[in-house]
């Protein structure tokens, strides 16, 4: 008697968003990327990515923030799956994404889904990928993708894909102000170059003061060290963000920056109660589209569920 081939149970991976606590942008490299020195923190806004064996490759997107995310081969999650297929000859999967990370907001939502898909496929098809293999696949998909697998707080160099651990104490509380529309990451880097107007830019070096601040666990210390070299470019493309940053500070944030390439803005607050107060004040002010509270650091992409029935 022959038995039917075993179909593995679907796997769900939860993956966080990121904020750059420091984003130092160096010169444009010959390959078009910019040399970076950045410190990432994973924060508790999540996408859930479920990967299931299927007759054909596909992706669907749901949730309150699903608008504008492609449900075709342009989706970074599906691109991640097809990349794995070129290396491991796996059978097709359907990917279902529930989006809780703002889209095109500078919080690496697409990269997060790619990271989650790599972790989910590793589990679904028992690929037994080691950390280095996962990181190699991740960096092929995008500069932010390796960090979304690692999570926590980490330093990124190269084009952002080379990670090193950072000693960070405590939990930090954030309020994120979501903006109308998104910003294209390449357009923000191009605007950064335009604003720099060929000036000589040194190779970026991480700031010792930020590392010390992270070791104290004190949000006041960290707030003083938040910085983002892309902020001027984001503000140049989206002047309305200046008003949001000013409002956040006026309503009690310890520090505020544009998140990555924007247009989401990130506000560091004293504690969870201060986060509620700021979220209420920003919402009432009418200058932001929506707000989300989160804390960090949190874990990178991890399996939360494999159906066993
Ligand atoms: C702004 C950040 O989110 C900060 O962490 C990242 O630097 C962007 O990372 P990402 O979205 O994963 O970006 P990638 O998919 O690798 O690259 C998209 C585009 O962003 C620009 N890019 C990205 C990373 C980098 N170090 N230099 C760049 O100039 C390039 O135009 C590139 O073609
Ligand atoms: N799974 C996905 N989730 C979100 N956007 C996706 C996805 N796949 C492809 N995209 C496309 O990528 C664009 C950028 O979306 P994403 O949310 O990754 O931006 P981002 O957060 O600014 O990225 P980053 O911070 O890495 O620069 C979207 O406008 C969308 O068209």
TrEMBL record:
Pfam families in alphabetical order: GHMP_kinases_C, GHMP_kinases_N
SUPFAM superfamilies linked: GHMP Kinase, C-terminal domain, Ribosomal protein S5 domain 2-like
Pathway this chain belongs to: Isoprenoid biosynthesis; isopentenyl diphosphate biosynthesis via DXP pathway; isopentenyl diphosphate from 1-deoxy-D-xylulose 5-phosphate: step 3/6
GHMP kinase C-terminal domain segment(s): 210-285
Keywords tagged on the record: ATP-binding, Isoprene biosynthesis, Kinase, Nucleotide-binding, Transferase
Top EC class of this enzyme: transferase
Binding sites annotated in the UniProt record for ATP: 102-112
Catalytic activity: 4-CDP-2-C-methyl-D-erythritol + ATP = 4-CDP-2-C-methyl-D-erythritol 2-phosphate + ADP + H(+)
Active-site residues per Swiss-Prot or TrEMBL entry: 18, 144
Gene3D superfamilies in the record: 3.30.230.10, GHMP kinase, C-terminal domain
The enzyme's E.C. designation: 2.7.1.148
Ranges of residues in domain GHMP kinase N-terminal: 75-152
Organism domain of life: Bacteria
Molecular function (Gene Ontology), one example: kinase activity
Function: Catalyzes the phosphorylation of the position 2 hydroxy group of 4-diphosphocytidyl-2C-methyl-D-erythritol.
Recorded family membership: Belongs to the GHMP kinase family. IspE subfamily.
Full protein name: 4-diphosphocytidyl-2-C-methyl-D-erythritol kinase
Organism: Ornithinibacter aureus
């Amino acid at each position: 008697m022959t038995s039917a081939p075993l179909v593995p149970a679907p796997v769900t991976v939860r993956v966080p968003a990121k904020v750059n606590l420091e984003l130092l942008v160096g010169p444009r490299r010959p390959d078009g990327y910019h040399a970076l020195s950045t410190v990432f923190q994973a924060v508790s806004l999540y996408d859930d990515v479920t990967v299931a064996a299927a007759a054909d490759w596909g992706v669907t997107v749901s949730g309150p923030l699903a608008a504008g995310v492609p449900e075709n081969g342009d989706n970074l999650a599906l691109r991640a799956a097809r990349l794995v297929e070129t290396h491991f000859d796996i059978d097709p999967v359907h990917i279902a994404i529930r989006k809780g990370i703002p889209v095109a907001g500078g919080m690496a939502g697409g990269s997060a889904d790619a990271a989650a898909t790599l972790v989910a496929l590793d589990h679904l098809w028992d690929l037994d990928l080691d950390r280095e293999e996962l990181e190699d696949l991740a960096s092929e998909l995008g500069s932010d993708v390796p960090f979304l697998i690692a999570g926590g707080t980490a330093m990124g160099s190269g084009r952002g894909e080379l990670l090193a651990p950072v000693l960070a104490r405590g939990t930090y509380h954030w309020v994120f102000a979501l903006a109308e529309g998104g910003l294209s990451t390449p357009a923000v880097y191009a605007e950064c170059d335009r604003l720099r107007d060929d000036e000589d830019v040194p190779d970026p070096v991480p700031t010792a003061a930020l590392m010390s601040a992270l070791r104290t666990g004190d949000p006041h210390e960290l707030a003083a060290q938040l910085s983002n070299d892309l902020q001027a470019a984001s503000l140049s493309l989206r002047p309305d963000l200046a008003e949001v940053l000013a409002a956040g500070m006026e309503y009690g944030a310890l520090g505020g920056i544009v998140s990555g390439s924007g247009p989401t803005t990130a506000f560091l607050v004293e504690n969870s109660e201060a986060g509620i107060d700021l979220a209420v004040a920003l919402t009432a002010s009418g200058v932001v589209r929506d707000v989300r509270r989160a804390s960090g650091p949190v874990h990178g992409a991890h399996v939360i569920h494999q159906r066993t029935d």
